[in-house]
Amino acid sequence: MTEPLLELRALDTGIAVRNGTVHALDGVSLKVMPGETLGVVGESGSGKTMTALSIMGLLPPGGRVSNGEIVFEGRDLRSLPPDEVRRTRGVRMGMVFQDPLTSLNPTMRIGTQVAEPLRVHQKAGRSEARERAIDILRRVGMPRPDKIVDNYPHELSGGMRQRVAIAMALVCQPKLLIADEPTTALDVTTQKQILELIDDLREEFGMAVILVTHDLGVIAGRADRVAVMYAGRVVETATTRELFRAPRHRYTEALLEALPEATDGERLYSIPGLPPDLSRPLTGCRFAPRCRFVTDECRVADIPLLGSGHEFACIHPVEGVAAVAEREAFSRSAPDSAAAPVLSIRNLVKNYPTRGGEVSAVADVSFDVAPGETFGLVGESGCGKSTLGRLAVGLERPSSGQIVLDGTDIAGLSGRERRAMHRQVQLMFQDSYAAMNPRMRVDSILAEPLEIQHVGDGAGRRARINTLLDQVGLSRRVLERYPHEFSGGQLQRIGLARSLALQPRLIVGDEPVSALDVSIQAQVLNLMRDLQKELGLAYVFISHDLSVVDYMADRIGVMYLGKLVEVGPARDVVRAARHPYTQALIDAVPSITETTRERIDIQGELPSAVNPPTGCRFRTRCPLAAEICETEPPLAGSAHKVACHFPLRSDTSAAAAVQ
């Protein structure tokens, strides 16, 4: 049998902190065979990234591998001299980090950064290193690589920066590539391109890949085997097909049930509680406090991995095909379509002047949002959806058009009048931590909008803050803490509480769950739907993930390069898309279910918004494009509208497809 390329044996990693040691990894054992892709999944804090950093020797300050072996190509890296370890990790291993903008040096040109491993580890000359950097950039699909080498990171899009990070990791042609959440911050089409690129390069270089992610759909379509981690341990490992067909550990089962695509009009399953504190001694199954099937024997002693081929550490494993847990059917009041819209956008245009012309960010967009309705807005990065959200809440002024909020056109209001309108509409940000003042405690963060709008006195504001905490499921103890002391899910609850402080009628959520684990995402989505029913809120829910929007929205609008190309009931749009771009977005979403249907692929990069294509703006990337597409199609139809000369389905076929 072929020997493993990499084998971890009973690996322990600790991080020294002020009050002790966080035992980030406890007895982790894994194998990676030559040429295979191993997927490592789990919630934040499960040990996924710490496993990758332990292999690469990039642990944070205070981090140390205290026990175990890291055997790479037959040699234990922990027993080798430091110089040899550094050379092995620099040449034979490569790593792609989650956020390429922070992992790239903002003061160095792209070519210099890509060539640096060649100059340090292989002593290549400046000219040779530059040519090889251009070559690897070309192989990772970078357009105009001979020009890109002279750019700085801030001049590139997110997808292009990720390609640079991959090029840096592969320039020495390693035998192992570790990709740590390489697509988390990317939209679905760019994500698909990056994942396909990693697959192609794996075959070209004959290397193995460790793909670290919390997205089970990414693993389902890309990995040969999967290791599921929880609280610093591997709790299940199997081939990808076997794990998704018949998971055995109750934690794996719970992760699968929390996916939006796993529900059909029911509440998402939400794993209760939080992962354990790894700085304290733990006994028994670490998932026991959150498990629906826990018994006393689960808490007595540590549970080893059992089985052969498909291993799991569970006393009460799933038997056969996992049974879906009983879920509460979600019911909410139907939007009041007869009432006046809470938000009405008409012929909205937003252009940004640049040195070379104007960026057409939003181009003649119109839609309504009824009281109590969720309007989902989807599209790739750069399509204009976030700009539209900022316009809707009055943070940007439109170039032309109307933004009618509760009967008042806010587009022409003065600054003071616009601030007063913020009582009716609020924005929920993608990154709640970045949106909060790190020097303010939570009590001040929640009180700030009340103070700005002169709502109530001190006692009244304190009472309102307590009500907000009850609504979002947080205890009073959080008021004394600062933003950095919270998890991502807790921060998003605080952000939601702040957006509710003034009792608005409309909340615009700009990618509010895109950075969250699937289990935390389920909690936040369920909470938003519960509050909508309780308070009669309307939402504009912005996302690039159609499966999430399908769960949240009553209607969906699909944007491409500043224009709405399809609008209709959520069920119709997702299950019977009419525009080729919408169908391509659906096909690009990673899924745990297989399909034999022919998919639509989007080719090439998003065109420049400074000089968008004439006619249908999607025609330069559309597989159905013809000469007539050079004339702009109108957004036509009744309840389900599409702007396409060659729609995929008619109104009647769309209705039949979703019955």
What would you note in describing this structure?
The chain has 659 residues and is α/β, with parallel strands linked by helices. It contains 22 helices and 22 strands. Helix 5 packs across helix 7.
In short:
The chain is α/β, with parallel strands linked by helices and 659 residues long. 32% of the residues lie in helices and 21% in strands.
Structural class: alpha/beta
Average pLDDT, all residues: 89
Termini, distance in Å? 52 Å
- Strand arrangement, major sheet: 6-7-8-3-9-10-11
Low-confidence stretches: 653-659
**What is the approximate shape?**
globular
Give the biggest sheet.
7 strands, mixed
Figure out the total of helices: 22
Report Rg. Answer: 26 Å
The percent range for strand residues is 15-25%
Portion in helices:
25-40%
Number of DSSP-assigned strands: 22
Summary tags:
disordered C terminus, 21% strand, 659 residues, globular
Task: List strands and helices in order, with pairings.
Elements: E1 6-17, E2 20-32, E3 37-41, H1 48-56, E4 63-72, E5 75-76, H2 82-91, E6 93-96, H3 100-103, H4 110-121, H5 126-139, H6 145-148, H7 158-170, E7 176-180, H8 188-205, E8 208-212, H9 216-222, E9 225-230, E10 233-239, H10 240-245, H11 250-257, E11 311-312, E12 343-354, E13 357-369, E14 374-378, H12 385-392, E15 400-405, E16 408-409, H13 415-421, E17 425-428, H14 432-435, H15 442-452, H16 458-472, H17 488-500, E18 506-510, H18 518-535, E19 538-543, H19 546-552, E20 555-560, E21 563-569, H20 570-575, H21 580-588, E22 641-642, H22 651-657
Parallel strand pairs: 3-8, 3-9, 6-7, 7-8, 14-19, 14-20, 17-18, 18-19
Antiparallel strand pairs: 1-2, 1-4, 4-5, 9-10, 10-11, 12-13, 12-15, 15-16, 20-21, 21-22
